[in-house]
Amino acid sequence: MTQKTYIVEGRQFRTEADYKRAVHDKEIIDKLRRESNGYTRKQLEQLKSAVHSGKYRFLTMLGRDFEDELTERIRKASGTKTGKKAAASKKTVRTSEKKTTGQKASGEKAKGLSDTEMDAIVQEELKKREKRRRLFIALCSLLAVCCLGYFGIYSYYDYRTNSTYEQMSELKDKVYVQREATQPVIHYTTDETQEPSEVLDEYKNLLNKNKKLIGWVKIDDTNIDYPVMQTSDNEYYQTHNLNQEYDRNGSIFMDKDCDVLKPSTNFILYGHHMKSGQMFGNLDLYEDKSYYEEHPYIQFDTIYEKGVYQIMYVFRSRVYSEEDIVFKYYQFIDALSEQEFDSNMQAMAEMSLYDTGVTAQYGDQLLTLSTCDYQEQNGRFVVVAKKVAAKE
Which residue pairs, CB below 8 angstroms and at least 24 apart, start in 337-341? Predict the structure, then answer.
């Protein structure tokens, strides 16, 4: 027995019940088509919105087909309107130009000028327009050159920075050959009774290159792998590299008040938040706890001693005015008592974006990495860790 076929609006329906529903939908659609014949684009959009919201109860896919049909009609209506507008606009411009030229010519003719004189005036006006056009092109070209120049300088500094730190890494790994009777030693204290510390072999070559070297910071699987500088001026290494050259990337540097020989309770390292990701540009990835879980350790060596630090706190702060009575992480360098240490630790724990489960006790060595944060004025993004014997 041959199965009966039901077709409405080009769609095939399997059962008589579905066919009746489709006929019901077609009646509504035909009515809406008649009513919307001659509708403007805005009216068509209103009709489509009503169909989409369910104002008209369609029982089959014909309702969706009609909505698509309305979309196409709206597109065509928009295209036609845009085309008419563009044509009208061009026509208006041409008419305006002719009218302006004609008005000038008529005005000059009214003054009793000859055709030759009027032609000369028209030619002069055209020359002025051409001059303005050329000036505009010249300004655009100058702007393009400036942009290319800025990009070139930006690329040069990035290349030089990468090249410099690649050389530093190679120099760090290079075997040190002693050329003097005494090994390089740096004194950061006025205490003459303190025994000078011996510099680690891997940092002797770098230290001979720049006596301001104080250590090296590295986080596995990241771009953070840099020498750390220290000088009595916290501003200098914001704009200079290890070679004492101007560099917009600056360098990673330790706060001038920290002491690696004493040592201070907390070593604070600063670095720019570069959009390129250089320096501490990717430090704010620690905002995500999952990133911390994959990178929970920081390696920080002073030139005298190697160190592994486990991250405890990640938080946002800012640089406060001297009058503000609030915890200022950048002033936490030495804890003079256990009570002061615990108070500072509690303040950082309350500010932390998430709980790492890692804490510290009075006497532990701390490390703080700090960079700019642009969520607020003078904002800072901070990661704090404590020294551990080894990675777990």
Answer: 337/362, 338/362, 341/265
CA distances from 197 to 128, 174, 194, 364 (A): 78, 21, 9, 21
Q: Percentage of the chain with pLDDT > 90? A: 46
Other CB atoms within a 10 A radius of the CB of residue 246 amount to: 9
Q: Which fold has domain 174-388?
A: Sortase; Chain: A; (2.40.260)
Other Cβ atoms less than 10 A from the Cβ of 72: the count is: 9
Is the distance from CB of 298 to CB of 312 less than 8 angstroms? no
pTM of the model: 0.58
CB atoms within 10 A of CB 59: 15
Segments in the chain forming alpha helices (H): 16-36, 41-52, 62-110, 115-173, 201-209, 289-294, 338-351
Which pLDDT belongs to residue 83?
A: 52
Q: What's the CA gap between 385 and 311, in Å, rounded?
A: 4
Angle between helices 41-52 and 16-36 (to 10 degrees): 150
Locate the domains of the chain by residue range.
1-112, 174-388
Pairing, β 366-373 against β 297-302: unpaired
Q: Tell me: the pLDDT tens digits for 161-191?
A: 666 676 666 666 665 556 554 455 554 444 5
Which is nearest to 329 in space by CA: 355, 299, 309, 350? 350
Tokens of 168: 């530093």
Write phi, then psi, for 180 (nearest 5 degrees).
Answer: -120, 165
Distance (Å, whole) CA 183 – CA 181: 7
In this prediction, residue 99 carries a pLDDT of 52
Q: What pLDDT score does 220 carry? A: 93
How many whole angstroms separate alpha carbon 241 and alpha carbon 249?
A: 8
Q: Which DSSP category does 57 fall into?
A: -
Q: Any long-range contacts for 295-298 (C-beta under 8 Å, 24+ apart)? A: 295/219, 295/220, 295/221, 295/222, 296/356, 297/219, 297/220, 297/385, 297/388, 297/391, 298/217, 298/218, 298/219, 298/367, 298/369, 298/383, 298/385
Spell out a b/e string for 135-146, using b for 16 or more CB atoms within 10 Å of the CB, else e: eeeeeeeeeeee
With b for 16 or more beta-carbon neighbours within 10 A and e for fewer, the 350-365 pattern comes to ebbeeebeeebeeebb
Q: How far apart are CA 208 and CA 298, in angstroms?
A: 26
Alpha carbon 89 to its chain's center: 41
